[in-house]
Structures are given as structure tokens and as C-alpha cells.
Design brief:
This protein is of the alpha/beta class and 462 residues long. The protein is 31% helix and 18% strand.
């Protein structure tokens, strides 16, 4: 509630945030050369961070982000006694920091304190005093970089967590990060309420007024969303224009509501771009979304010009080939707030899923086990190759069969199975002992072949 540097002003800035938004765009890449090749619209090369630099003196930095027992931390800030997550369970940092078993991402990112501005000319609108905190590049730099991924993070995320989630949920792809800043519990919840009501409230009202005879979602309801949603829509439209419809969008939790409302606000122009470029792949992934997958499926189908136009696209047989929403078992946000079941684009056994997720709501806050809402994998348009796994599989470049994909069950086993003291998965009658209810997943998930070897989700560059 109280304003601080950690919550970017807290509740005191909330009115302006609700109306105008304060999302901060940036770039995240694996390959340093992508940033080295960029110049500002003034012709200056981007400057890598050096020791002793002030906050406004550098443009990008290298950082290794580690998944610890207490969230995402920078490797440079960890102590040897800190507990981190590895493919063999929770270990002390000092014992594993030189191995490739830790769950970590090494990237180059633009200065989190600076706003990325993609422009055609040398526009200097806005407060001139803030120019030192802007990185102005041209759309040609985005084209030359090959960046075709965009990601919006969820609530309560610091920049480190947002970057980590972008990497894991988009398969390590280079991306523009639409950083949704945190404003403390009260501020973020107010934003959530407005965007959630914008998506769901208008439909409910229309259903009530028309006595249930309304057909489809209500177009334009996204305009009732937050300023952050408007910023998100503008950035999606800009990136769709630059990439000529060839864009992969990822979003997690609160970010999915900003994305959904943003798509609704800018639907006409985005739809025209996607339909004008019939060879383009406009893909969307939601993770832990408080947005029902059927509402999102309808919006994406409309963007493609309708169901028939969608099915006429190359390599598209159903809407799940261009849009996928994943919900983990016992994820309260995705299941209860999004009215969805565990799995991908799934509503099977919804009542049971909502009940079990409600009983497990404490996991969101670290009570009763690790949260199933916090971290997800990639399930569509993954990595620089834009690889899409089979439905109910996730992107796994370390798959032993070389297919780059593994059944979703493996992901949950790797992350939510109990471990023996030696780090191996605890087994009971030949089955992993799980901390989550795997029966909430759809039957086709459970019928996939499950192998019990450890599969690394991410590796750290030594």
C-alpha cells in the first residue's frame, strides 16, 4: 500500500496507472550480438553495463537468473547457503553453482529502468527530462534482429521474475518484454479487478439483459480495461505491423487479461494485418490465465477472419494450432478465476477442478506446497524456430528422443513430484509420488506415455 521503490510507487500512483498504464517495454535476448547491432535513432550504439555505471548510463546487461526456493534471484546475489531448485531437487547454491543441473536462464536484457521506444523518426514527445531513461530504436532494428516474440508478465513480478518467465514460457526465444510493473497487493488487485470485469462483466450484463439470447462475446469491451491493457494492445499492434502478422504472443496470469483486452481494443487493425499476410503465424499462449479459454479462442478466431478462414491457413486444423491456454492442476487463478480445468484449452470436469483448486488456494502464497501457478513451460511457438509441440506436450529441447517435446505429465513430475534425499523422484508401486492431483488432467493427458527419467527444463550456461 505504502509507496516505495520496490513497488514502483504503490497505491499512491494507482489512479494514473489505471487510466494510462505504466508498462515498460524492453528487449530480452540470448545472443548479445542482437543488441550490439542495434543503434538508437540518433545513431549511437547501445551501451553495455560497466562496473560503476549510474542507472541512466547503460542500455543493456548480462544476467543469470536462478530459480530458488524463494523465487527468482540473480546468480551474482546468491550466497553458497541459499537453496536453489535443480533437476535433482532443492540444493545449496554452493554445491551446484558450477553444474548444469540448476534451473536458470542466462540472457542479455535492456536496462529495466529504461523504456524501449520503437519509432520511425526522432519523436521527442513527452517529458524531456526522462529522455535519459528511454532507449529509442527504429522498427528496422526489430526486423533485423529477427525478434518475433512478445511477452506480458503477471502480477507481483519483479523484472527478474518477468524475464525468467518469458524465457521459460517462450522456450528461450528472443523477445520484446512488455513488463507489467508491480504496485503491491492492493494496486495489482485493483488492476486485476478492472481488467477481469472488462472481459467477463460485460458478457454477463448482456446475457442478463437479453435473457440469454446474446451470441458470442461483446466486441469492444476491452476499452473498459486498464491503461496497461491499452499499452499492451498498442504494442501488440505495433509488433504485428513490424513482423507483418508473424508474431508469437505469450502472457502469464494478469498479463493474459491485459493481452485479451488489448487484442479486443486493437482487433480491427491486428485482424487486417493477420488476414493480409496469409503465410504469417500469429500465435498466442496463455499460462495460468484468469481468462476463459473459450473467450480467447473466439477472439483469436475472429482475428483470423472466422473459423473457415482459420482452417484454410497452412498447418491449421483447429484453433489450438494457433492458440493454447494451459492451466496446471490446482492452479486457483487459472481454474477458479478463469473457469477452466487443468490441461490445455480444457473444461473437462470443471466443477472438480474448481473445488480442488479452491482447497489448494494456500499454495499461491507458499502454504501447503509449491505454487502450481508461478512457473509454466512453452506449448506453442517455442524458441527461435517457433516450434509447436503436439497438443498436451511441452517444448523440451533436452528430450531424449530428439523430438524437442515431452508429455505435459513429465513437466508436472519434474516440478511437483516428491524427492528422496538423493534427489531422485520418490516412487510408489512404480508411479511417482505427486504433491498435486494429476487426476485433474484430461484423460488424453493421462494416456500419454510417461517416462520417469529426469528431464531438464532449463540449463545454465557455464
Amino acid at each position: 500500500v505504502l509507496p516505495s521503490a520496490e513497488n514502483d510507487g504503490g497505491y499512491i500512483t494507482q489512479i494514473a496507472t489505471q487510466l494510462f498504464g505504466d508498462n515498460r517495454a524492453g528487449i530480452v535476448v540470448k545472443d548479445k550480438s542482437k543488441l550490439e547491432a542495434m543503434t538508437t535513432v540518433d545513431g549511437e550504439q547501445l551501451r553495455e553495463r560497466q562496473s560503476g555505471d549510474k542507472a541512466n548510463e547503460w542500455d543493456y546487461e548480462k544476467v543469470t537468473l536462478v530459480k530458488t526456493k524463494d523465487g527468482i534471484k540473480q546468480a551474482s546475489e546468491l550466497k553458497d547457503t541459499d537453496m536453489v531448485e535443480t533437476s535433482d531437487g532443492i540444493k545449496k547454491w554452493g554445491d551446484v553453482k558450477t553444474t548444469n543441473t540448476i534451473k536458470a536462464e542466462t540472457v542479455y536484457r535492456t536496462n529495466p529502468d529504461k523504456q524501449l521506444v520503437i519509432e520511425d523518426g526522432q519523436d521527442r514527445s513527452g517529458n524531456s527530462a526522462l529522455e535519459d531513461y528511454k532507449i529509442r530504436i527504429s522498427k528496422d532494428d526489430i526486423v533485423a534482429s529477427g525478434i518475433k516474440h512478445l511477452f506480458t508478465n503477471g502480477m507481483f513480478n519483479d523484472h527478474d521474475t518477468a524475464v525468467y518467465n518469458q524465457q521459460t514460457q517462450q522456450g528461450g526465444a528472443n523477445a520484446v518484454l512488455n513488463y507489467n510493473q508491480q504496485h503491491g497487493v492492493v494496486g495489482d488487485l485493483i488492476e486485476d479487478l478492472q481488467d477481469h470485469m472488462s472481459i467477463n462483466g460485460a458478457d454477463i450484463l448482456v446475457e442478463a439483459v437479453t435473457l440469454g439470447h446474446a451470441e458470442g462475446a461483446v466486441d469492444g469491451i476491452g476499452n473498459l480495461g486498464t491503461g496497461g491493457a491499452r499499452q499492451t494492445g498498442n504494442l501488440i499492434e505495433q509488433m504485428t505491423t513490424i513482423r507483418e502478422g508473424d508474431l508469437t504472443i505469450g502472457a502469464h496470469s494478469q498479463g493474459t487479461m491485459m493481452t485479451q483486452n488489448g487484442l479486443d481494443q486493437r482487433q480491427k487493425n491486428i485482424s487486417n494485418l493477420v488476414q493480409d499476410h496469409t503465410d504469417a503465424n500469429f500465435l498466442v499462449q496463455y499460462s495460468g490465465a484468469p481468462v476463459n479459454h473459450e473467450i480467447a479462442e473466439e477472439k483469436i478466431t475472429e482475428i483470423y477472419g472466422g473459423e473457415q478462414a482459420l482452417m484454410e491457413r497452412k498447418n491449421v486444423d483447429e484453433v489450438s494450432d494457433v492458440f493454447r491456454s494451459q492451466v496446471a492442476p490446482e492452479d486457483f487463478v487459472g481454474s477458479v478465476l478463469g473457469y477452466q480445468s487443468a490441461g490445455i484449452n480444457n473444461s473437462e470436469n470443471l466443477g472438480v477442478n474448481m473445488r480442488e483448486s479452491t482447497l489448494s488456494v494456500g499454495r499461491l502464497f507458499g502454504f501447503g506446497g509449491s505454487s502450481t501457478h508461478s512457473y509454466y513451460g512453452c506449448i506453442i511457438g517455442c524458441g527461435e524456430e517457433n516450434f509447436t509441440p503436439k497438443k498436451d506436450f511441452y517444448f523440451n529441447p533436452n528430450a531424449l528422443d530428439g523430438s524437442n517435446q515431452s508429455p505435459m505429465d513429465n513437466y508436472y513430475i519434474n516440478n511437483f513430484a516428491e524427492r528422496n534425499s538423493d534427489g531422485n523422484i520418490k516412487m510408489d508401486n512404480g508411479k511417482p509420488v505427486m504433491t498435486i492431483n494429476m487426476d485433474l488432467l484430461p484423460k488424453n493427458n493421462q494416456e500419454n506415455t510417461i517416462n520417469n527419467q529426469i528431464i531438464l527444463d532449463t540449463t545454465r550456461s557455464k
